[in-house]
Amino acid sequence: MKEGLRDIWDSIYKYFFVSGKKAEENQERPVKHYQPVIDPAELSDTATKMFQARPKEDASTEKIEEEKPWWDFAGHADSQAPVFDILQDDRIVEELNRKLDADEFPVIEIPSNVMKAMNILDKRDFEYVEITDLIRRSPAMAGEFIKAFNSALYFRGETITDLKVGLPRLGKENIKAMLYVYSSKMNFSSNVLFNTLAKQIVEHCYTTALIANYIGQDYYANPEEAFIAGLLHDIGKLGILKSLTETYEMPEEIDFEMTEDVFDNIFPSIHERAGEYLAGNWKINDSIKFAIRHHHDFNTMEGADPDMEEYHLSALVNLSDSMARILGYGRRISKTNIFETEAAKTISLEKNNHTIEFIGNIPAMLSTKAK
Ligand SMILES: [Fe+2]
Ligand SMILES: [Fe+2]
User: Fold this and answer.
1) What is the distance in A from the centroid of ligand 2 to the CA of 296?
2) 270 CA from centroid of ligand 1 (Å)
3) pTM (2 decimals)?
4) pLDDT tens across 185-231, in order?
5) Domains, the chain, ordered by start
6) What ligand has the least distance to the C-alpha of 324?
7) Among 72, 206, 217, 349, which has the minimal tally of Cβ within 10 Å of its Cβ?
8) Under 8 Å between Cβ of 362 and 99
9) Residue 33 CA, ligand 1 centroid: distance in Å
10) Cβ neighbour number for residue 116 with a 10 Å cutoff
11) Which residues have a Cβ under 8 Å from the Cβ of 139 and sit 6 or more positions away?
12) Exposed, middle or buried by CB within 10 Å (0-12, 13-18, 19+), for 227?
């Protein structure tokens, strides 16, 4: 290229491709080499550390516990109930056992109208209308039945306030069990000391009955029987309270809340036997009597036989009792995972998505039961 032409070309190049000043700068700028802050040899290790979570200086370092489902229960706090020396005395249980042996244990009185209703129910050809008037004579009793008609178990989309409509739906055996339980509760209606506790025990029994019936529909051949066994399972506690009021002088007033915890040295060791005694008096069938007697020791009792139907009924009541207590209906319960209990294993309630959903319905079912 000739000298003159080269100059023209350089001028055109600079004009179109590099602005004059920048071109100068570019030419002048020294070449800089990138100096990595981190030695590449350490990069992979450093990168891991770089993205490691680090709590903020002011953030709590406490680990947040994942919320567990209700059936995996951490256990209630220890009892706050006062301890009474006299109730810790083993002679009280000895005396209760003696009364049961000698057939001197108090039988809970059943009002005459309720007894008449029982007799009618025992007739082969009875009409529900025959017992309606008898039950109506006890407004409190009639109220309990109406509550049951409208509980989750029997609710069929319409509120029932008429005994004539509701009683046939409950069926003969359920009516009898309810008559016994609610008559027992009424024995304490004028007892200032034990009235509230008796109500709580019956509420626990009723909740256990609803759960036993619900689970029994899939895990027991006779869910109606499961309901009755649940309803009667702790009835012995009312018998014990009655016996104590008859044997010992009780204070007129107390300045603490009377709860089951007060009887921790008495109820656990003898309420099953007392319940079986009362159920025997009421001519309750043998399977239910067995479940009342063994709802706590079905798997450790002498002669425990997993092939027996009664064994399964006892396990079902035990399981329903635990669930009721976890859900706040009944006495304290220690750490319990429902699926890991002997009772769940006995009735073959295994943990899987279906059973988690199945028992998951129970709290909602209980919250819709009539209060
Ligand atoms: Fe019990
Ligand atoms: Fe119970």
Assistant:
1) 9
2) 9
3) 0.78
4) 988 988 989 999 999 999 999 999 999 999 999 999 999 999 999 99
5) 95-110+191-368 (1.10.3210.10)
6) 2
7) 217
8) no
9) 82
10) 16
11) none
12) buried
